[in-house]
Protein backbone atom coordinates (compact mmCIF):
# COMPACT_ATOMS: atom_id res chain seq x y z
CA UNK A 1 0.00 0.00 0.00
CA UNK A 2 1.40 3.36 -0.95
CA UNK A 3 2.21 5.65 1.97
CA UNK A 4 0.66 9.05 2.74
CA UNK A 5 3.00 12.00 2.27
CA UNK A 6 3.74 14.10 5.36
CA UNK A 7 2.81 17.79 5.37
CA UNK A 8 6.44 18.68 4.64
CA UNK A 9 6.70 16.17 1.81
CA UNK A 10 3.47 17.57 0.33
CA UNK A 11 4.74 21.14 0.53
CA UNK A 12 8.09 20.15 -1.01
CA UNK A 13 6.34 18.34 -3.86
CA UNK A 14 4.07 21.32 -4.51
CA UNK A 15 7.13 23.57 -4.82
CA UNK A 16 7.87 21.71 -8.06
CA UNK A 17 4.25 21.74 -9.21
CA UNK A 18 3.45 25.38 -10.06
CA UNK A 19 -0.29 25.95 -10.26
CA UNK A 20 -1.18 23.02 -7.99
CA UNK A 21 -2.32 23.59 -4.43
CA UNK A 22 -3.47 21.61 -1.44
CA UNK A 23 -7.20 21.12 -1.01
CA UNK A 24 -6.95 20.46 2.68
CA UNK A 25 -10.60 19.68 3.38
CA UNK A 26 -10.37 16.91 0.76
CA UNK A 27 -6.88 15.58 1.61
CA UNK A 28 -6.00 16.23 -2.01
CA UNK A 29 -4.12 18.46 -4.43
CA UNK A 30 -5.79 20.33 -7.27
CA UNK A 31 -5.25 22.56 -10.25
CA UNK A 32 -7.50 24.25 -12.80
CA UNK A 33 -6.60 24.33 -16.49
CA UNK A 34 -8.18 26.74 -19.01
CA UNK A 35 -7.84 25.94 -22.71
CA UNK A 36 -8.67 27.76 -25.96
CA UNK A 37 -12.04 26.00 -26.29
CA UNK A 38 -13.93 22.84 -25.41
CA UNK A 39 -12.22 20.83 -28.14
CA UNK A 40 -8.77 21.50 -26.66
CA UNK A 41 -10.06 20.88 -23.13
CA UNK A 42 -11.47 17.52 -24.15
CA UNK A 43 -8.33 16.64 -26.11
CA UNK A 44 -6.37 17.26 -22.92
CA UNK A 45 -8.78 15.08 -20.96
CA UNK A 46 -8.45 12.29 -23.52
CA UNK A 47 -4.68 12.27 -23.16
CA UNK A 48 -4.87 12.45 -19.37
CA UNK A 49 -7.35 9.56 -19.35
CA UNK A 50 -4.84 7.38 -21.22
CA UNK A 51 -2.05 8.35 -18.80
CA UNK A 52 -4.34 7.66 -15.82
CA UNK A 53 -5.21 4.21 -17.14
CA UNK A 54 -1.51 3.46 -17.65
CA UNK A 55 -0.76 4.60 -14.09
CA UNK A 56 -3.88 2.92 -12.67
CA UNK A 57 -4.39 6.22 -10.86
CA UNK A 58 -7.32 8.41 -11.86
CA UNK A 59 -8.26 12.06 -11.40
CA UNK A 60 -11.40 13.40 -9.78
CA UNK A 61 -12.16 16.05 -12.33
CA UNK A 62 -14.83 18.40 -13.67
CA UNK A 63 -15.03 19.98 -17.12
CA UNK A 64 -17.13 23.05 -17.95
CA UNK A 65 -16.59 24.21 -21.56
CA UNK A 66 -12.85 25.17 -21.78
CA UNK A 67 -12.02 24.68 -18.09
CA UNK A 68 -10.89 21.42 -16.49
CA UNK A 69 -10.63 21.28 -12.69
CA UNK A 70 -8.43 18.38 -11.58
CA UNK A 71 -8.30 16.95 -8.04
CA UNK A 72 -5.90 14.16 -7.13
CA UNK A 73 -5.95 11.99 -4.03
CA UNK A 74 -5.22 8.34 -3.31
CA UNK A 75 -8.46 6.73 -2.19
CA UNK A 76 -6.70 3.60 -0.94
CA UNK A 77 -4.51 5.69 1.40
CA UNK A 78 -7.09 8.37 2.26
CA UNK A 79 -4.93 11.27 1.16
CA UNK A 80 -2.05 12.54 -0.97
CA UNK A 81 0.67 10.05 -1.96
CA UNK A 82 3.55 9.87 -4.40
CA UNK A 83 1.10 8.52 -6.97
CA UNK A 84 -0.78 11.82 -6.95
CA UNK A 85 2.45 13.79 -7.36
CA UNK A 86 3.54 11.56 -10.26
CA UNK A 87 0.20 11.93 -12.03
CA UNK A 88 0.22 15.70 -11.48
CA UNK A 89 3.63 15.88 -13.19
CA UNK A 90 2.32 13.77 -16.08
CA UNK A 91 -0.77 15.98 -16.37
CA UNK A 92 1.38 19.14 -16.51
CA UNK A 93 3.48 17.59 -19.28
CA UNK A 94 0.29 16.81 -21.25
CA UNK A 95 -1.05 20.37 -20.73
CA UNK A 96 2.18 22.09 -21.83
CA UNK A 97 1.81 21.76 -25.64
CA UNK A 98 -1.68 23.30 -25.43
CA UNK A 99 -0.26 26.63 -24.28
N1 LIG B 1 -7.14 6.47 -8.49
N2 LIG B 1 -6.97 8.61 -7.59
C1 LIG B 1 -6.99 7.27 -7.43
N3 LIG B 1 -6.81 6.77 -6.18
C2 LIG B 1 -6.79 5.43 -5.97
O1 LIG B 1 -6.64 4.99 -4.82
C3 LIG B 1 -6.95 4.56 -7.07
C4 LIG B 1 -7.14 5.13 -8.33
N4 LIG B 1 -7.31 4.36 -9.40
C5 LIG B 1 -7.32 2.91 -9.31
C6 LIG B 1 -7.08 2.39 -7.97
N5 LIG B 1 -6.91 3.19 -6.91
C7 LIG B 1 -7.00 0.92 -7.82
O2 LIG B 1 -5.68 0.55 -7.55
C8 LIG B 1 -7.85 0.44 -6.65
O3 LIG B 1 -9.12 0.94 -6.86
C9 LIG B 1 -7.85 -1.06 -6.65
TrEMBL record:
Q: Which GO terms describe its biological process?
A: tetrahydrobiopterin biosynthetic process
Q: Does the keyword Iron apply?
A: no
Q: Which Pfam families match?
A: Pterin_4a
State the protein's name.
Putative pterin-4-alpha-carbinolamine dehydratase
What Enzyme Commission number(s) appear in the record?
A: 4.2.1.96
HAMAP family linked to this entry: Pterin_4_alpha
Catalysed reaction, written as an equation: (4aS,6R)-4a-hydroxy-L-erythro-5,6,7,8-tetrahydrobiopterin = (6R)-L-erythro-6,7-dihydrobiopterin + H2O
Query: Keywords for this entry?
Result: Lyase
- UniProt record similarity statement: Belongs to the pterin-4-alpha-carbinolamine dehydratase family.
Reply yes or no: does the keyword Amino-acid biosynthesis apply.
no
Instruction: Write out the GO MF terms.
Output: 4-alpha-hydroxytetrahydrobiopterin dehydratase activity
